[in-house]
Model the fold of this input.
Amino acid sequence: MTKTIEEINEKIKAGKAVVVTAEEVIDLVKQKGTKRAAQEVDVVTTGTFGPMCSSGAYFNIGHSKPRIKLGGGRVYLNDVQAYAAFAAIDIYIGANALPDDDPRNRVYPGEFNYGGGHVIEELVAGKDIGLVATAYGTDCYPRKRLETWINIKDLNEAVLFNIRNAYQNYNVAVNLSDRTIYTYMGMLKPNLGNANYSSAGQLSPLLNDPYYKTIGIGTKIFLGGGTGFIAWQGTQHNPNVPRSENGVPKRGAGALAVIGDLKQMSPRWLVGTSMLGYGCNIAVGIGVPIPILSEEILKYTSVTDNDILAPVVDYSRAYPQMESDILAEVSYAQLKSGKVVIQGKEVPTASLSSYPRAVEIATVLKEWILSGKFWLTQPVSPLPGIESGITFKPLNERPIEE
Amino acid sequence: MAVSRRIVLHFPRRLVDRPIVYRLIRDYDLEFNILKASVTPDEEGLMVLELKGKQEDYDKGIKYLTKAGVRIQSLSRNVIRNEERCTHCGACITVCPTGAFELEPLTRRVKFYNEKCLACGLCIKACPPRAMELHF
Done:
């Protein structure tokens, strides 16, 4: 049994496509077996919602009168520094950006209540954002100072462009030391006091297509409540990690770079976040449709939390010191039970990504497809797979001697 | 009229070994729930109680406590969840010392049991979207 994306799109247009979420497909396969399920199902929708660090947005604010060249100058949005090194009026703000006067970790652990992620959330919510810029002035762009309110509806372009999102699997963070530590994986209590994880597991996009057989560059997706596209593989994309028999990576592996029109998006799916003692970030909602082109593809989408293993890593030493030690491998089913056993100790677990929101995204995407609002795209190029030989290299540090 | 209040009781040393709370309950017909207690012989004791009962019984009970020499403070801090901001990730669950957050196994939504909350505030800073708020 094989299908093409064109055939599936015809069925979507005719209102006859069968679409289920990556959670619903599990029971369907249990009832009917993979062969029948693959014949019946056309699309499986996935979803994930969690803090995704390498995220940001770019804007074109329109020319002031007289003109100002922001590139090479300094730009702040609600006191948070934006990146101004493009042409005159294009700026980019990263989710981790902070106001200059934020105390950071000088008062430890820093609270990081407002940063780039929050600016993006407020902009998407339609709130006015204060822009303050200084520039050096040229003959063609004479202005040196600009203070103005900006609003998303007035911007020429407002584009979310995240260079690494939707990680295919992730570490489970614990703390073996004797003091509380504050990490991007949350507050970790001493002596294995808790274990934090961050993945939608059986609903997560790349865990349902472990070898990137359907998800590729150009795939149309749910992004932040609007539609977006996969632009490239994410930074640190690493297909060559240990995998289970079912092909699912047992470590952080592939990742996606995604792009989409911020004006279509909603603050429900782009939420500014603060990690105590670490910094600011943004929680991003992403949903990827998987066309069921064959029985093999369907089999991948029926993966359950029992079949997905994640590595447990000590964030008091192994992680910061770049040591590769892994304390254990645990399944998402175990993690979601509320406790896991690590080094003989029962450790309570908590998640940083929201499973209920991931379910909601997969369901919304399913409804978009069923109502004919959203059709599938053929990737223009695949993501690099195992055969690419790509790995995630550490820095080759070569000290510069004066 | 029925009332339900949360109060902090400070017991001076001389009262620590006396059955104050027992008498409060027996004589004034109040329902109680101990939220926190730290009572060690020969030291000042502290107890956080939720008291429920008729207004007049409650007033009499408080009068009794004051007369006995217990210092009373109302627990005016209250932690509230901003339902709009909460994404139900669950980061709060292992941070809370009293287990006031629980995961609903089926929906994986996070339940917040305000009655278990001591208003310590740990969840406020640990919540990534800052959905937990302290109210006075």
Q: What stands out?
A: The interface with chain B takes residues 49-51, 109, 111, 113, 186-187, 189, 193-196, 271-276, 281, 283, 336, 338, 348-357, 359 of chain A (CB under 8 Å). Chain A has six helices and 26 strands. Residues 56-160 of chain A form one domain.
